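dumping this here so i dont lose it
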């Protein structure tokens, strides 16, 4: 059987694999607690659901323009001006089937075979695979926990070659929850300007910052804005993960290329979900504030509790809803005689023996860490950490 070598080189998403296994175990009646999924446990706000129901009842179920409705593009432009002080025209906005789809479009639009994309690690698992899907070469820069898992302008400079086309910046970050400061972004932007490379700014968690506020790298100057491709969506902010609406803001040339490709690949994003996204972007933020407050409380409890336990530790994040737990001192220990020699083995045994699903850091290029999501109830978090404490106490040399 003949299969594409390129597609055979693409690894499955470990986060989705863990979540799938967790859901299957739960369906089988096991008392499993899951910390793998990157989605809010809150329901989509009622006014957003009402807008979708109204759209269905009014027959808004037909095709829209491939790159999204003018109404939604205007709502995105209004949001960018209101929240980020960035002025875009509707011809610079492309609406896609989730921010993940937006990123695939971005890499497709800017890469030719062999072009390089710099990706700081730990990274969201899909970035390198998306680059490879589009014939690019991911160039990874490892970062350290003691540096808050942030890449520096100097590190980026060292990795730039004539083949470099872009740098990916994800702030707040999945999986680390770290947030870049304005000053840090200014230094990175200067490197991009010096070498005229694109900045792909994944801002999907922008409203989930617990101390301070979000700053987009595109705000630095018009020149930086022209090189920046903002990727965002409604999934995390409005608890709309299943609605699958993401968007990009870029210079008109890139937007046109992405729109052309999308017209052949998927036609338009879901029409009803686009109407719902307009209601989300233009509507009240009361539900967001409730969700954000709950996440902040859970984050504090989870981080503080982890840091009281033996063998493990974490750096308290300032954004998103993830914590990277350091398991360096667990590696080399045994559970019931089985050696824990990797984050994958830790996650496997922890799930099978204590029925707790966490994501190994291997897929994030953080092999000595596992990721916990606190986008779940306080009760689940307490139960999961109780089981972690018991698990750690059962380890042996």
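and the seq i came up w/
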């Amino acid at each position: 059987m003949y299969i594409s070598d390129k597609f055979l080189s693409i690894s499955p998403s470990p986060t989705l694999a863990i979540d799938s296994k967790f859901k299957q175990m739960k369906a089988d009646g096991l008392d499993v607690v899951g910390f793998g999924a990157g989605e809010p446990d809150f329901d989509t706000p009622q006014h957003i659901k009402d807008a979708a129901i109204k759209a269905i009842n009014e027959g808004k179920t037909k095709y829209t323009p491939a790159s999204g409705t003018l109404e939604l593009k205007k709502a995105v432009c209004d949001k960018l001006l209101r929240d980020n002080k960035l002025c875009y025209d509707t011809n610079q906005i492309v609406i896609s089937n989730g921010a993940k789809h937006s990123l695939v479009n971005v890499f497709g639009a800017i890469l030719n075979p062999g072009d390089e994309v710099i990706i700081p690690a730990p990274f969201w698992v899909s970035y390198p695979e998306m680059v490879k899907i589009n014939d690019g070469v991911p160039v990874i820069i490892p970062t350290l926990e003691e540096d808050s898992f942030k890449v520096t302008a100097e590190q980026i400079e060292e990795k730039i070659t004539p083949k470099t086309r872009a740098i990916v910046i994800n702030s707040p970050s999945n999986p680390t929850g770290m947030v870049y400061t304005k000053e840090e972004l200014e230094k990175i932007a200067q490197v991009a300007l010096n070498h005229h490379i694109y900045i792909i700014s994944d801002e999907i968690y922008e409203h989930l910052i617990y101390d301070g506020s979000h700053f987009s790298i595109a705000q630095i100057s018009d020149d930086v804005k022209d090189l920046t491709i903002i990727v965002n969506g409604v999934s995390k902010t409005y608890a709309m993960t299943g609605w699958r609406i993401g968007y990009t803001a870029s210079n008109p040339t890139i937007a046109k290329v992405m729109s052309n490709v999308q017209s052949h690949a998927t036609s338009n994003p879901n029409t009803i979900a686009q109407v719902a996204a307009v209601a989300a972007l233009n509507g009240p933020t009361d539900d967001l504030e409730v969700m954000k407050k709950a996440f902040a409380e859970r984050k504090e409890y989870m981080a503080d509790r982890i840091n009281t336990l033996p063998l493990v530790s974490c750096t308290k994040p300032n954004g998103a809803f993830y914590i990277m737990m350091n398991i360096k001192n667990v590696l080399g220990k045994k559970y019931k005689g089985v050696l824990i020699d990797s984050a994958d083995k830790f996650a496997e045994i922890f799930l099978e023996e204590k029925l707790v699903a966490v994501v190994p850091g291997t897929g994030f290029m953080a092999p000595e860490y596992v990721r916990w999501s606190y986008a779940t109830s306080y009760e689940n978090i307490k139960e999961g950490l109780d089981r972690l404490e018991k698990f750690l106490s059962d380890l042996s040399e």
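The chain has 14 helices and 16 strands.
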